[in-house]
Design goal:
Blueprint (H helix, E strand, L loop, with lengths): L4 H28 L3 E7 L7 E10 L4 E4 L15 E2 L2 E7 L4 E6 L20 E6 L11 E12 L12 H8 L3 E5 L11 E4 L5 E6 L2 H6 L10 E5 L1 H9 L3
Antiparallel strand pairs: 1-2, 1-4, 2-3, 3-6, 5-6, 7-8, 7-10, 8-9, 9-12, 10-11, 11-12
Length: 242
């Protein structure tokens, strides 16, 4: 196969671009990973004593943690002294499946919240979290991909038999979510979706809540990953005066 000078130039330019993007992400990860945490409960009499439920990320003064509301929806067995591991649940927005937790002591490195106005389809982003939880060990894992679509959380149904109470409530006032071409796994819920260059968080990965609505008409779930725009986290923080 013969290559023209123009083709070779394009191939070399593309190679440099890929290498530059990889270098950017490597540098950004050094800032992001210390602020990504596991969310779970602790029970002294249980084996294992700690149960992992999802991912979260630290913001603000180093004491606030963002995650999905469904991650912390578990009812705690206070009679057996079960408790959230070193955090309190302080704010929940069930409509957008967002929860804010607060560290009981100490502070952690923080992530910066970005602006949704800069988010565009085709943009390259990454998310870091704990897929599959404690099964593979609590080591943060990073995936990257583009935002393949920005679309409403709900889609029209074909008949009334596909409706349920949750879907009806969400149809009344739908909002947009990000659809990604990267795969998230159980345990990734609550992971920060961030700009690979700046590390600014533009969304919260969601493995359960969005699928219940977007894929309601499907007999089998598909492997699409979704994220809730960060503006809803900002609104929840503002409603609490933070």
């Amino acid at each position: 196969m013969k290559f023209t000078k123009k083709t070779l130039f394009l191939l070399i330019s593309f190679s440099f671009l890929i290498n530059a993007q990889a270098q950017e992400l490597s540098e950004t990860l050094l800032k992001v990973k210390p602020g990504v945490v596991g969310v779970g409960t602790f029970l002294p009499s249980r084996s294992p004593r700690s149960i992992f439920l999802g991912t979260g990320f630290v913001i603000g003064n180093g004491q606030l943690i963002v995650t999905n509301a469904h991650v912390v929806a578990k009812k705690i067995n206070t009679d057996r002294l079960e408790k959230w591991a070193i955090v309190d649940k302080v704010a929940v927005d069930r409509k957008h499946d967002i929860a804010i937790l607060k560290l009981k002591r100490g502070r952690l490195p923080t992530l910066t919240l970005g602006s949704v106005s800069n988010v565009k389809e085709g943009g390259l982003y990454a998310f870091t979290g704990y897929p599959i939880g404690m099964v593979l060990g609590l080591y943060p894992v990073t995936h990257r991909g583009i935002i393949s679509a920005i679309s409403p959380i709900v889609i029209p149904v074909f008949n009334s038999g596909q409706l349920n109470a949750k879907l009806i409530r969400r149809l009344e006032n739908p909002y947009n979510v990000y659809q990604l071409d990267a795969t998230a796994y159980p345990g990734n819920s609550g992971s920060p979706l961030y700009d690979v260059q700046t590390g600014e968080v533009i969304g919260v990965i969601n493995k359960v809540f969005v699928k219940e609505t977007k894929e309601n008409v499907l007999s089998k779930p598909i492997g699409i990953t979704y994220a809730i725009p960060i503006v809803h986290v900002k609104n929840l923080l503002a409603s609490k005066g933070w």
